[in-house]
Amino acid sequence: MKHFLTIENSSRDELVSLIDAGARLKAIRRQAHEKPLAGQVWAMIFTKSSTRTRVSFEVGVRELGGDVMFLSKDDLQLGRGEPVKDTARVLGRMAHGAIIRTGPQALVEEFARYSNIPTINALTDEEHPCQILADLLTIREKLGGWAGKKVVFCGDGDCNMSRSWMWAAKHLGFELVIAAPEEFQPPAELVEATGPGVSVEPDLKKAADGAHVLYTDVWVSMGKEDEAAERLKTLAPYQLNSDVLAAAREGAIVLHCLPAYREKEITESVLEAHAETIFQQAENRLHAQKAVLAALVNDGIA
User: Fold this and answer.
1) Which of 301, 252, 297 lies closest to 23 in space, CA to CA?
2) Which are the catalytic amino acids?
3) Does the predicted model carry a pTM greater than 0.90?
């Protein structure tokens, strides 16, 4: 694995291997272990704000023996119009790897192509692959695995998280239902491409029936602030609340990739009742991303 850019272009074996490695790294975190990034400096290029992604990657790189250099858009000539390929060719001669959080997926892929150093997608408008690894690790910890499980994604069904979930369902073979109003449903061609295990259901309670996992995300993503009023109005019936939870299977878990806006996409009571799982999910960003970093430099840690 040279880069980690999408769930779409990952294989089942790669995903399972990364989740396995994340679990191992979590188990040995407080013990002495190999430092595969020793002597390396990784560039973190973030044009979008971040809490969990930035902290988990900075801690992860350092725990694996490396150092990080955080670069916002205001720190780089990218902000003044330098082509991505030129920035990539410069950093590729100085840094040992790059972790990029930005808008267009094409920018991450162009950087990877021209830099010739390992590159990780830390969120784009198209996908959020590192979050999905943490989510799957959490499901395995709480439910024993994803085989035979039904995951329901509630709300904006055409966002980077829902698309990443769709590709994960295709590769790993679990059932995924996207519960979303018509104007926020994924394109029909994407649903078809991700296989028979993925479906769309506009009725949230019907979608939640028998679910093992209920998942939601913010309704107004970064860059969508101008659409906030209309989004909140249209998505209001897709709130994850106690009525929706009652329709799910007994023992169903609730996941949220955070930040959470209480009483919008999720109620305060449901979030707090499932806070232990949700913040375990947040912690698992660290372990899953360490697995990605290790895999990119030495095919993982045994």
Assistant:
1) 301
2) 101, 128, 131, 217, 257, 285
3) yes
